[in-house]
Amino acid sequence: MSSNGLIKLRERIAPLRAEIIQHPAFQSMKSLEDLQRFMEMHAYAVWDFMSLLKSLQRKLTCIEVPWQPVGEASIRFLINEIVTGEESDIDPEGDYISHFELYMRAMKRAGADTGLIERFLHRTSEQGLDAAIAHDETPDSAKQFLNTTFRFIEGGKPHVLAAVFTFGREDLIPDMFLSFVDHLKSQFPNEVGTLRYYLERHIEVDGDHHSHLAYQMTEKLCGNDPIKWQEANEAVMEALEARRLLWEGLLTAEVK
């Protein structure tokens, strides 16, 4: 049963969440080229989702040696269960793969340009995150999206990270997008098949099992503390606004 804090948070974000799901960027998609452009922008969100997830694991579990127990075992279970599914899911052939790597494979199969996100990741390794985000090749809306996420990460508050992870992330792909992908798959089965599989796994794993685990994690971390729930509310609203602006970037054709 959901706590009062969780119910109020859902009610507060409902209008903005609906605006994101009904965004004109989805309605404007008509072709395989439109899908490719979407995937090139969305790749930044798929990647920083993993960074947010790992920041939670780092905060809520022990990743150091020598090992020491950290926090509640139930919370450790929740985050480790999610990490396992996101970092080591199965691909269509039954081999293990992270959701980000699966998305990259789907991009290549669909003919989308993976060079943008690959060069971005190379810069994070060679020049650091700030330089990679600030680079001219990174679309402006992706810059604000990434800066928002990593500001939460740097803030280091587990309840804020959990709330943003739970309510500001990958459950914001609407049914109309799924229908659009299914339509394209009927025309381009080889190009779009991997993306459809990725979305199926996303719905099956992230949208069901992982979402329930994330709700529990957020409730446990916020507890009965009104200040934590207020901080969680504000952070989620900021994260959702950053996502709305990311979709705006699709309409302005920022991807170079």
Explain this structure.
The structure is a single chain. The protein has helices at 4-21, 24-27, 32-60, 73-87, 99-110, 115-126, 129-134, 140-155, 158-167, 175-187, 189-222, 226-251; strands at 89-90, 96-97. By secondary structure, the protein is mostly helical. Helix content is 76%, strand content 2%. The model has no long low-confidence stretch (mean pLDDT 90). It is built from 12 helices and 2 strands.
Give the strand tally. 2
User: Roughly how many Å is the radius of gyration?
Assistant: 18 Å
How far apart lie the N and C ends?
46 Å
Global structural class = mainly alpha
Instruction: Note poorly predicted spans.
Output: none
Number of helices: 12
Strand content of the residues, in percent? under 5%
The average pLDDT value, as a whole number, equals 90
Which geometry do the CA atoms define?
globular
Order of helices and strands: HHHHEEHHHHHHHH
Largest beta sheet, briefly?
Answer: 2 strands, antiparallel
Strand order of the largest sheet: 1-2
Assign a percent range to the helix content: over 70%
At a glance:
The protein is mainly alpha-helical. It contains 12 helices and 2 strands; from the N terminus they run ααααββαααααααα. It has a two-stranded antiparallel sheet.
Outline the fold blueprint:
Elements: H1 4-21, H2 24-27, H3 32-60, H4 73-87, E1 89-90, E2 96-97, H5 99-110, H6 115-126, H7 129-134, H8 140-155, H9 158-167, H10 175-187, H11 189-222, H12 226-251
Antiparallel strand pairs: 1-2
Helix pairs in contact: 1-12, 3-4, 3-5, 3-8, 3-9, 3-12, 4-11, 5-11, 8-12, 9-11, 9-12, 10-11
